[in-house]
Automatic annotation (TrEMBL):
This is Biotin-dependent carboxyltransferase family protein. Residues 32-311 form the Carboxyltransferase domain. Gene3D superfamilies: Cyclophilin-like (2.40.100.10). Transmembrane segments: none annotated. Keywords: ATP-binding, Hydrolase, Nucleotide-binding. It comes from the Bacteria. The keyword Nucleotide-binding applies. It comes from Marinobacter daepoensis. The keyword Hydrolase applies.
Length: 317
């Protein structure tokens, strides 16, 4: 990231809504301590919001889940919102998504309810400023780490938010995402899955069902993981010695209903795993509302790695 210095208060929280969290790229190199990574549940939309706001990779953004957030600008700001359509408005007028927008001082930016997708990402030119905890400002409430206060607290009414003074003018860089880069979160996604070490322990029927049935997103879903409901998968292994769990890991507990683990997951687990979603597939799943259907698609690690590297290169990551 480029050198920056903190400014005075830039945004005031008028209404916090159900869940708004500060998220940078995430917290890495600490899982051996039992600390999870945090970071944006939808890495793809987070990356685009920062890119369009003119911020370098890794800058902190607000992850707004379900909407209901109202913010007042304490100074003129340049922002970008990417991800879910949560009915964002400026002084009651719709805010265009996936592009840079001017937010005048004194005006209220409000998020309504989900029209498509679940999580929107608000990036401000310069990036949000907060004290890092273990090398990151990513907010993980369970571990009381990160966020604007450093202790993992979600936004609350009357909070005051700081941003960094940007070192590049707002006229630089891409200001609007091309149409092909904007996901349609209403469409049932097909999620890339890399088969895991225990996949051979599942029955043939279970493997057929895993990749040929539509799975439904259960209402038991949060930043720790998403439960999928559908055919019952059977595995000859009932449990394992606990081992490290990566982002997108697809655990199958005894009830046969997969759980896809996301950013705030526990660091170890003992259920057999069907495999792992790719990082971009995990991002797409994080935008699915309860009841939405998804499909699992087996992919090779070479193909997934090639696509992920191309994604990172597009943001100079």
């Amino acid at each position: 990231m480029t050198p920056q210095s903190a400014t005075d208060i830039a945004i005031r929280v008028r209404r916090a809504g159900p869940l708004a969290l500060l998220q940078d790229r995430g917290r890495f190199g600490v899982r051996h301590l039992g600390v999870t990574q945090g970071g944006p549940a939808d890495l793809y939309s987070w990356a685009w919001a920062n890119h369009l706001a003119g911020n370098p990779w890794g800058s902190a953004s607000l992850e707004v889940t379900f909407g209901g957030l109202q913010l007042v600008a304490e100074r003129d700001l340049e922002i970008a919102i990417a991800g879910a359509d949560l009915g964002a408005t400026l002084e009651g007028k719709p805010v265009p998504l996936w592009q840079r927008v001017h937010w005048p001082e004194g005006q209220t930016l409000a998020f309504g309810t989900p029209a498509s997708g679940l999580r929107a990402y608000l990036s401000v030119h310069g990036g949000f400023a907060a004290p890092p905890a273990m090398g990151s400002v990513a907010c993980v409430a369970r571990e009381q780490l990160g966020g604007f206060d450093g202790y993992g607290r979600k936004l609350a009414d009357d909070d005051q938010l700081r941003i960094f003074t940007p070192t590049t003018p707002t006229t630089q860089g891409l200001t609007e995402a091309p149409g092909h880069a904007r996901p349609d979160f209403r469409e049932p996604p097909q999620l890339d899955l890399l088969p895991g070490a225990q996949i051979a322990e599942f029955t043939g029927r279970s493997l057929f069902d895993a990749f040929n049935a539509w799975w439904r997103v259960d209402d038991r879903a949060d930043r720790m993981g998403v439960r999928l409901t559908g055919p019952r998968l059977q595995c000859q292994i009932r449990s394992l010695i606990s081992e490290g769990i990566n982002l997108g890991g697809v655990q199958v507990p005894p009830d046969g209903q997969p759980i896809v683990l996301l950013n705030d997951r526990q660091t170890i687990g003992g259920y057999p795993r069907l495999g792992s979603l790719s990082p971009l597939a995990a991002s797409r799943l994080a935008q699915c509302l309860p009841g939405q259907e998804v499909r699992l698609v087996a992919r090779s690690s070479e193909a997934v790695l090639r696509e992920y590297r191309a994604f990172l290169a597009g943001f100079n990551a």
